[in-house]
Amino acid sequence: MVKNMTAEQGRTKEIVLFGLFTALTAIGAFIRIPVPVCPFTLQLLFTTLAGLILGSRRGALSVGLYVLLGLSGVPVFTEGGGLSYIFQPTFGYLIGFIAGAWVTGRIREITGGKSFGQILLANLSGLLVVYLFGMVYVYIINNFYLGTPIGIWPVVLYCFILAVPGDICLCLLAAVMARRLERAAGDFIR
């Protein structure tokens, strides 16, 4: 019976953490930090933390649940929700958040992810994946669906060079937060 209780408690903990990171990602979409040229949200912070704390598989599933909620019509994206959101140029970043959470978690799992440097490496790797998905999607949707041609270099300039400094700061913050959360929450998040 004790073994069943432990399994039940473990499942409850997993559901709570899934829901928590899905909700934090949704909230992060509406916390906008106004900076010149490329204002950004805190979605990346929470999707990165999901990968770090929940691990690769569960982190990606948590972010995937967020994306599915938005596509089903729940207004959790920065511009609302619904299936038509796939035609927004920024939808690629949402796909990238799923892949980025997986990569972040996976690299932390492979390296052991105990030191600040290992955690930051995982975060920056996940960030690159997010940007790769986002920039490719911006290019494809603008050139082949919206009919507003854009070259590779403008995409790199506006969607990477001007935007990445703030997201690097979020990666640093996520590395600090992950270590502190793990110390504070202990066994609950492990």
Automatic annotation (TrEMBL):
<dbReference type="GO" id="GO:0005886">
    <property type="term" value="C:plasma membrane"/>
</dbReference>
<feature type="transmembrane region" description="Helical">
    <location>
        <begin position="61"/>
        <end position="78"/>
    </location>
</feature>
<feature type="transmembrane region" description="Helical">
    <location>
        <begin position="119"/>
        <end position="140"/>
    </location>
</feature>
<dbReference type="Pfam" id="PF02632">
    <property type="entry name" value="BioY"/>
</dbReference>
<dbReference type="GO" id="GO:0015225">
    <property type="term" value="F:biotin transmembrane transporter activity"/>
</dbReference>
<dbReference type="InterPro" id="IPR003784">
    <property type="entry name" value="BioY"/>
</dbReference>
<feature type="transmembrane region" description="Helical">
    <location>
        <begin position="37"/>
        <end position="54"/>
    </location>
</feature>
<keyword id="KW-1003">Cell membrane</keyword>
<feature type="transmembrane region" description="Helical">
    <location>
        <begin position="152"/>
        <end position="176"/>
    </location>
</feature>
<keyword id="KW-0472">Membrane</keyword>
<keyword id="KW-0812">Transmembrane</keyword>
<feature type="transmembrane region" description="Helical">
    <location>
        <begin position="12"/>
        <end position="31"/>
    </location>
</feature>
<keyword id="KW-0813">Transport</keyword>
<feature type="transmembrane region" description="Helical">
    <location>
        <begin position="90"/>
        <end position="107"/>
    </location>
</feature>
<comment type="similarity">
    <text>Belongs to the BioY family.</text>
</comment>
<keyword id="KW-1133">Transmembrane helix</keyword>
<protein>
    <recommendedName>
        <fullName>Biotin transporter</fullName>
    </recommendedName>
</protein>
